[in-house]
Design brief:
The complex is a heterodimer. By secondary structure, chain A is α/β, with parallel strands linked by helices. Chain A is built from 5 helices and 8 strands; from the N terminus they run βαβαβαβαβββαβ. Chain A starts with 6 loop residues before the first strand and ends with a strand. The relative contact order of chain A is 0.21. Chain B has 2 domains: about 150 residues, Aspartate/ornithine carbamoyltransferase (Rossmann fold), CATH 3.40.50; about 150 residues, Aspartate/ornithine carbamoyltransferase (Rossmann fold, 3-Layer(aba) Sandwich), CATH 3.40.50.1370. The longest helix of chain B has 22 residues. By secondary structure, chain B is of the alpha/beta class. In chain B, the strands form 2 sheets. In chain B, strands 1-5-4-2-3 form a 5-stranded parallel β-sheet. Classes of the chains: A alpha/beta, B alpha/beta.
Amino acid sequence: MAESQEKILLDEQAMAGCLEKLGREILTNLPEGVPLAVVGIRSRGEVLAQRLVDILHHLGAERIDAGTLDITLYRDDLAERGPQAVLRKTDIPFDIDGRFIILMDDVLHTGRSVRAALDALVDLGRPRAIRLAVLVERPGRELPIQADYVGVRVVQEDLPVAVRLTESDGIDEVRVG
Amino acid sequence: MKTTRNTKTTKSSPLPAAHTDLGKPEVVWTRRHLLGLEELSGEELEHIFRTAESFQEISTRSIKKVPALRGRVVVNLFFEDSTRTRMSFTLAAQRLSADVLDFSAGKSSVTKGETLRDTVRNIEAMGVDTFIIRHSAAGAPHYITRCTDCNVINAGDGQHEHPTQGLIDIFTIRERKGRIAGLKVVIVGDIAHSRVARSNFWGLKRLGAEVTLVGPTTLVPRAFEKMGAKTSYDLDAALKDADVVNMLRIQHERISSQVFPSREEYVRLFGLTQERLRGTKPDLLIMHPGPINRGVELSSEVADGPNSSILRQVSNGLAIRMAVLFLLNQASGKN
């Protein structure tokens, strides 16, 4: 077996820079007078969404609501996945009707998680618009889904990407290979 | 020992997949059948409760439906009548987007002499995934697991178990009290014939509650003491320091039997009234798995009072049954 060429794509500082860049891009494209909300996809998207909200506040954005989606019940591969970690609550403590929603996830790969998240969101109401923000984008889309805001792109195909966050994994870093 | 997958991977370990979930999975649910609470571990019970908590949120939405079991078929196989349990299972399955078939013994081929095995195999041949079975014979659901590849949920088998009702009651206690371990729980009524009492007892015992079974001498078998319960024929004494009291429904057909005191005597000795509640803990949780006989197990005042969780049990029934349907179907995914 070939030795895997694992390398660090983002360290703590670079990750913070990426998120700050995402925050600035989001703020330059905001529609007038539409309330903003950031919704993270469990589990790492939840953590990233929380950080993004803090950054947006820091950059001067007014009240922003934050929520979390558990997409387990909307996945299309229940039959293949077998026993799973515990299902957790979807926690969207605000009315999503008429909102401008930033959907946040750690990695965009096949697009299936995002598809499930879109279904889960529209079951809760009718947002004004939904935009997708991801920390890492990698090739391998199986659905016609693209991100609107991307922290960093991996261009090589078939390179595994691992996102680790301090809150869950003890360290902020993204590794590839 | 179950292996716990540590998400705090060290740097030298191979990379996890990109979409690895956090906190994954402390306990993996692998059972394809729910036959009783006696065989479940504390971790498995807790896993069901945490899953049910997530399902509670769905019932608060305006669109009370998720696509998790889309394309799956759930069969209500009821050889004994039970409108309420059947409705609860049906609604739970529908909220998960499963299709539901209803089978009633009275109108079926059973009356034409078909065996249980043939009934099950014939329905399975139509392409179904889960059987929910209620049967007067203890062990009928266990037998069905040997006739079919489908998931099987016991919805009450003879005097053996009614695991989802036990889960509902314990989940409701957990919700109201914040814990199970160390609580004093009193179960009152026809203990000898009650599958609800058995399921409650096994689950509560596993989670560390102290269970006291109370009723007429003829209906509270001493054998339960060997299993770890206390027994008593004196409700007032048992209620004194109780945290929870679960009043079982009295079956009308027993009232006329030899083992049962008169209705009046039962109410006097074992009925829960406002007067009897004096001297009990002010936050005593009052439960009843339903349907209640007002004026027998409970006075109306008590049944509708602030300490009663009767309607909450019914609401929680949906979340628990959604959780069980989901977990069993998920576990059968790979097989």
